[in-house]
Amino acid sequence: MQVAGRNVFLPLRQTVLGARRQYPVARQSKSAGTQTNVEQVPPSAAKCHGKMRGWQLHSYGDIDELQLSDKLKIPSIRSSNECLVRIRTTTVNPIDVAMLRGYGATVLNKMRCLPSDGIEFPLILGREFCGELVHKGMGVSESLPLGTRVWGVVPLQASAGAHAEYVAVPSYCVSPMEKFVEPSLISIKTIQISQAPDQLDDCEAASVLYAGLTAWSGLYVTGGLGGPCGATTSSGGGAHKRVLVLGGSGGVGTLAVQILKSQKVQVLATCSARNVEMVRNLGADFVVDYNDCEAMEELCKYAPYDIVLDCAGQGAQKAEELKYDYRQYITFSSPMLANIDQQGLVFGAIKNVGDLVQTNFKSFVQRGGLVKWGFFSPAPHGIEFLKKLVESRKLIPQIDCSFDFAELPKAFERLKGGHMQGKAVVKL
């Protein structure tokens, strides 16, 4: 959904344009009746007409609903704490595949639309990116100069995601990396800034934050692995705890294994047979093929687990099938949004409470532990925690495959095929 207000690029003589490239200037722009001071590096000549490429969704369905357009409006800066970033790489995550089918539409549409509006489409998917800062408001910290290479995440409720050359995201969702030149564009709000790693290339940088923050939130916010400090600071923690990661070879699983090992946690993991060696090389102490019944029985010897982390989309119902005890079973496949989609806000919320109570009663009686739902959380201290691990080379994202921007639907197909060995990256 577009809010009133747009960038206006005035025609300039070549000498003036060259001078502005060397010496960014402040100018005044009006948006929705307010004035905003912005500092900018002029975009490339191809972008001066205010158009960009992007993959849009005009109705929910399958991959064929994705439509590539080169005539989309570039997002405009509408406040002094916003930035414009040129995207170089993005990714496709399982949540993008789910949202393509309409997952969470009821709640997310309420969050993204004005009460008098109700406009849901078009949507642009994409939850994370790596790019270059080319334009910012005067309220943005001086620690984020123009030309800075940044990485960031896009909240679920944003109607314009990272599968385009520009996007709008909240302030705490972007961090600076090293500088570089060129590529495609994104509009970001930035207030809280932290120094990000320069040890990663563009594809790797775009592959950390969404899956990494999901794993971090599940372990430290939902699971309390590091106590109160682990949930509220970048300190991590959890030494000598025992955690079982279901689905250790996917985007979230590979990062969860590395996060846990960096904190001296005993890590066990499940994955398909072809991925066992890869997960073991990431640092897991014990890895089993989930199709091998005898090997799965070995997991009982290590019980009870402080946390069983479901990164394989098994859901809460899987907890009832486990043959070993645990203190917490945390799944990222929550039925919360799906229940509301099916039964509405009121009855869906009631069903969510009922499901959680019923599941936890069975779980506590059978295994002595609780079932919890984990969620992605773009917390600044979570980003800082991941950044520190990357800088110390204790966290290296795994890339399963990469595609050109025009081939983005192929990345969706790859995710639907399953058995991933890390992330699916899209290069602009």
Description:
The chain is of the alpha/beta class and 428 residues long. It contains 12 helices and 17 strands. Strand 16 (399-404), helix 12 (408-417) and strand 17 form a beta-alpha-beta unit. The chain is globular and about 60 Å long. The model is unreliable at 1-36, 42-46, 179-183 and 188-195 (pLDDT under 50).
Q: Helices, strands, pairings?
A:
Elements: H1 14-22, E1 26-31, E2 34-40, E3 51-57, E4 66-73, E5 82-92, H2 94-100, H3 105-112, E6 128-137, E7 148-153, E8 174-179, E9 186-189, H4 202-205, H5 209-222, H6 227-232, E10 242-246, H7 251-262, E11 266-271, H8 276-281, E12 286-289, H9 293-297, E13 307-310, E14 328-331, H10 336-367, E15 370-373, H11 380-391, E16 399-404, H12 408-417, E17 423-427
Parallel strand pairs: 10-11, 10-13, 11-12, 13-14, 14-15, 16-17
Antiparallel strand pairs: 1-2, 2-6, 3-4, 5-6, 5-9, 5-17, 6-7, 7-8
